Amino acid sequence: MQSMTVADGTKVTMSGHELVFGENIFVPRDANDIAGDMAALRARIEEDGYLLIRDFYDRDAVMAARADILSYLAEQGCLDAEAPAEEGVIGPENEGAALRNEVVVNMKAYLRVVNSERVMAFFEDFLGGPTLTLDHKWPRAVRRGHSTGAHYDVVFMGAGTKALYTVWTPLDDLSLDMGPLAFCPGSNKLDVLRRTYGTADAHNDVTDGHLSRNPLELIEKFGVKWSSTPFGAGDVIIFGMYFLHGSLDNVSNRYRLSTDNRYQLASEPVDERHMGQHPDQIPKAENRKTMAEMREKWGI
Prior knowledge:
alpha+beta
């Protein structure tokens, strides 16, 4: 297992922009000390916007889910044929893979994790009633040189309840150079973003739901601080729909394997665009605005 400590001065990049630990990016605090106290967890996520729980899932189950995805990548010719498939080394073409629901339904070990009694029981206790998970699943295999821009999830799945929670899970031991999740603690309290960007809908309003691909700009404009850490297989970060997050750049030679999935009370309205056999069919972009246009309109 790798160390979760990060020395001050360690440099990482996000969309090519440099961040330095101890200056503008920091290691997050975990919630393992309060993991059995639902009232404390609710207070923590209200305060910080997230819960980092180490070893939430059984490690062996997560590694079996990882094997599902690596098997698919191997079938698609994405892996380096000169390296053992279980290492997840990116092939010379540095190809991406579309892990859509029609592929995911055949990944039995993966589904046993993200639909498990472990996570469903957690949310039943955390939310106080029977829960459901959206049919749309989001396994990721991020190739070298790629990252995710800063965004709120509500922009992509906000047509149902706003009390919808994301569980981001590394499906591997992820070092910083593999491009793990990066996020802004406290960004759930940025009223100016909730009132503007947080009302947008990537299906109907904007061509790209990412607020920005420049983390330094967001520090200057909104006063946020970034956070990231190495992760172990089985760790999770849980956060709500109004929480600013993205990912560091993957500058390694291995696919960054992770998944982010959504959970809510079964009694709450559901975003039906993410349910059924073929979820999230985003329409063509003819009548949508660029994020730059929308930000100018919002004055942010």
